[in-house]
Amino acid sequence: MKLLKFKSYADYVLSQERRNRNKINMVAASKRELDEVVQMVLNNNPNPSYGLCHGVRNGFEVCYLKERTNMEVLGTEISSTASQFENVIQWDFHEIKEEWIGKFDFIYSNSWDHAFDPDKMLDSWIKCLKENGRCYLQWTDTHAENTVSGADCFGLSLGEMKDWISKKYKVEKIKTFYEFSILNPSRWMINLIKRPRPGIRGRKINLVVIMPKV
Fold first, then answer.
1. Per the structure, how many domains does the chain have?
2. Which uninterrupted H or E stretch holds 49?
3. Is the pLDDT of residue 198 over 80?
4. What is the pLDDT of residue 199?
5. 99: containing domain
6. Which pTM was predicted?
7. Residue 134's beta-bridge partner residues?
8. Rounded Cα distance, 150 and 167, in Å
9. For 61, which DSSP code?
10. 202: left (phi over 0), alpha (psi -120 to 50) or beta
11. What's the rounded Cα separation, in Å, for the pair 168 and 177?
12. β partners of residue 104
C-alpha cells in the first residue's frame, strides 16, 4: 500500500485538475463491467431510485448507468470541467452532502485511487448507501502500488484492498472481467504487449463489491 502526501489541499486539487484535463476524453470504465453493476443493483432492489458515481471525468459511467437503469444517477468530479457534462457536479469525493446520507442504491468508482485520505473517502461513501445498497469499486493493475504518482496518489494490491475494506465493511464478492478494448485499441495493444494472455483477452478488470455492514 502506498499513499502520497501533498504540501497542501490546494496542491492536491491542482494535481487532480491537471490530470483531468489531460485525460478528459479517456474512459476507464468498461461497458461489460457497468452491465454487471446494473444487474447486481437490480438484483438487490428491483425498483432502485438513486445512484452515485465518483471521479467521473467526462461522465461516461453516469450516462451509461442512468440509461440502463432508468434511475437518477449523479456524478462528481473535483475538476472545474465538471460543469461541461450532464448530471455531473464539481465536488471533492471525500465529502458528502447531508441529503446524500442513506440515499443511494449504489455507488460506483474507478477513481478511488485519487484519494488523499482513503479511510475518510470510504467512510463517506458507505454513509451514503441505503441499508441494502452496494459500493462497486474497479481494481486493475493501474490501481496497484507501483502506479502511484501525482494525481493517482493511493495504490494497493487487490489483496491489500480487500484487507483494507474488511477492517470496517464487508467485501461481498470480487468479480473478474477481461475487456476487449475495441473502443480503445491503443490501450488494448499496450495491454497485449505488456501482459499477453491466451485468447488475447485484453485488460483484466476486478469489480470489488462492498456491503455497508460487516
1. 1
2. none
3. no
4. 41
5. 2-211
6. 0.89
7. 106
8. 27
9. H
10. left
11. 26
12. 129
pLDDT, position 13: 97
Q: What is the CATH number of the domain that holds 60?
A: 3.40.50.150
The CA distances from residue 58 to 20, 28, 90, 170, 196, in Å, are 9, 10, 12, 30, 30
Question: Could you tell me which residues are beta bridge partners of residue 51?
Answer: 73, 106
- What letter represents residue 7's amino acid? K
How far are the Cα atoms of 23, 90, 203 from residue 86, in angstroms, in the given order? 18, 12, 28
Does the pLDDT value for residue 193 go beyond 60?
A: no
d(CA 174, CA 130): 21
Strand order in the sheet with 104-109: 88-90, 72-77, 50-54, 104-109, 129-139, 203-211, 170-179
Is 181's pLDDT higher than 60? no
User: Smallest Cα–Cα separation from 56: which of 105, 32, 20?
Assistant: 20
- 52 burial (CB, 10 Å; 0-12 / 13-18 / 19+) is buried
